[in-house]
Specification:
Helix 1 crosses helix 3. The protein contains 3 helices and 4 strands; from the N terminus they run E-E-E-E-H-H-H. By secondary structure, it is α+β, with helices and mostly antiparallel strands. It has one domain. A hairpin with a 2-residue loop joins strand 1 and strand 2.
Length: about 110
Amino acid sequence: MMENKKVNILGTEYEFIITGDTTISDIGDNAGVCNPFLKQIVVKDDLMPHGKYRKEEAKKYFEKEVIRHELIHAFFFESGLDDLARNEQLVDWIAVQFPKMLKAFQELEAL
């Protein structure tokens, strides 16, 4: 299955692909990859190859987290912050914490 969409990252159009083809953008064993040169974000359609998550709800949550993770890479790259884009710990922290941050922003009408 291949699903293609376009997403605007700070004025730059990125191709967003969900696929089972691991040769695209050298995704390899990764769940997703952001390629700032090709302006492409690729996420595997089967993110649980080793059965790590068995429940469908956990699988969906992980898929969304991977998508957020790759989007954050793209935002950093398009901001010219390549060093931060390569900081996996920071990118992962934002991807995991963003839903909680968004909820707090919404509660205080800070958007």
